[in-house]
Design brief:
With 387 residues, this protein is of the alpha+beta class. 49% of the residues lie in helices and 15% in strands. The structure holds flavin-adenine dinucleotide.
């Protein structure tokens, strides 16, 4: 067992840390207030070559893997959780193409997405089907050399800036086996953004509601050229990216705890610094315990993914990391805000933003409840055995 980061890991972490401090931090408050997608963040990630880490070099990525991606996400999420989401989005719509695309499809779309010349979004959730994605209703019907796409997708992160949409649609009967995956031109006739959301947090990355009305999608855009494989591509993608959502939580918690610690050193009460009160010291100790536990879970989960261990028999490890790290971020954001007292509640400090942003993490890419379904099922099925 080796807990040391490699030279490559350290380089990626340092690069992300520099961007976090120079580009992300100065505008974190502003992007939350305006809700405008920060193109400058994306450009900095692009210039640093951080957008292809989740995709192998043979397909146009940089092939670093999910652990290095987590390291970068952790650094930027210390200052702005949406910046972490932007890096997650370098894998969310692209990995279905990596898992399911033919070599021609991979070469057609992935290099431009990994370099940052193009952007994509992942379209699974529908108005009536979130956790129960296998019941989705968007339909793609074959018509000559095309499919005709009709339906609705909601809460699509980065949808307003996407060039391509990785869309999961029903081509067959009910259930998971009837679902296929397509790459859809976001500007094709019949693709419409009906609205964006006025969100509580993570406001820098808009979520779009799409409607598809008789959209002609070339049959060559069906991933793998085979119907009925789409749900697998979606699940492999979500499983393998669970550590990256956890990393957003770890980074957010580190940013919140670090900020509160510096403040507590300066603030005076009853003739002491706030940090001199044992009650406050122990709050920090509890934050540290949880951050360290979550970081280790996330790194281990990311390592498993990089070993190719993200199929059903390993899924509980990924769910444990995602559930714990994202719930931990909520607890730490809560306590860090509390340390600042009234000031923590005000927009003069970033803690109320961290608190709002953390709330997103236990919902997206599989809620905490759904993670517990996966974990308890693994115990019942003896994939996870204690004793
Ligand atoms: C900010 C944001 C960004 C998002 N970005 C994207 C995106 O880019 N692409 C995309 O496709 N989707 C995206 N989503 C959607 C997200 O993945 C879904 O919200 C999530 O999967 C939950 O679905 P739902 O909201 O429909 O909740 P529901 O599935 O309706 O669940 C409602 C409640 O029931 C619980 N529940 C549901 N099923 C079970 C069960 N079997 N056992 C126990 N409890 C259960 C849930 O945990 C939840 O508490 C985003 C959501 C948000 C908030």
């Amino acid at each position: 067992m080796d807990f040391e980061l490699s030279e490559e890991h350290r380089l990626i972490k340092d690069t992300a840390r520099r961007i976090a401090r120079e580009v992300v931090a100065p505008r974190a408050k502003e992007v939350d207030e305006t809700g405008e997608y920060p193109h400058d963040y994306f450009e900095a990630f692009k210039q640093a070559g951080l957008l292809g880490m989740a995709i192998p070099e043979s397909m146009g990525g940089t092939g670093n893997g999910i652990l290095p991606l987590c390291l970068a996400i952790e650094e930027v999420a210390k200052y702005e959780c949406g910046a972490g989401l932007m890096l997650v989005l370098s894998g969310l719509p692209t990995r279905p193409i990596m898992f399911g695309g033919t070599p021609e499809q991979q070469q057609k779309w992935l290099p431009a997405l990994c370099s940052g010349d193009r952007k994509a979004a992942f379209c699974l959730t529908e108005p009536d089907h979130g956790s129960d994605a296998a019941a989705l209703e968007t339909r793609a019907t074959r018509d000559g050399d095309d499919y005709i796409l009709n339906g609705n997708k909601v809460y699509i992160s980065g949808g307003t800036v996407a060039d391509y949409l990785t869309v999961f649609a029903r081509t067959g009967g009910p259930g998971a086996k009837g679902i296929s995956a397509f790459v859809v031109d976001a500007h094709a006739a019949g693709v419409r953004v009906d609205r964006t959301d006025d969100k509580m947090g993570v406001r820098s990355v808009p979520t779009a509601h799409f409607s598809f009305s008789d959209v002609r999608v070339p049959a060559e855009n069906l991933l793998g050229g085979v119907e009925g494989q789409g749900f697998n591509h979606a699940m492999f993608t979500l499983n393998s990216l669970r550590p990256t959502v956890g990393a957003r939580g770890v980074g957010l918690a580190e940013g919140a705890a670090g900020y509160a610690m510096e403040w507590a050193r300066e603030r005076k009460a009853f003739g002491n610094s706030v940090i001199d009160f044992e009650a406050i010291q122990f709050m920090f100790a509890d934050m540290a315990i949880q951050i360290e536990a979550a970081r280790n879970l996330v790194y281990k989960a990311a390592w498993l993914v990089d070993q190719g261990k993200f199929m059903k028999e390993y899924a509980h490890n990924l769910s444990i990391a995602k559930a714990y790290a994202t719930e931990m971020a909520n607890r730490v954001a809560f306590d860090a805000l509390q340390v600042l007292g009234a000031q923590g509640y005000m927009k003069d400090h970033p803690l109320e933003r961290h608190y709002r942003d953390a709330r997103q993490l236990t919902i997206v890419e599989g809620t905490s409840q759904v993670q517990r379904v996966v974990i308890s099922r693994a115990m019942i099925d003896r994939a996870l055995v204690y004793g």
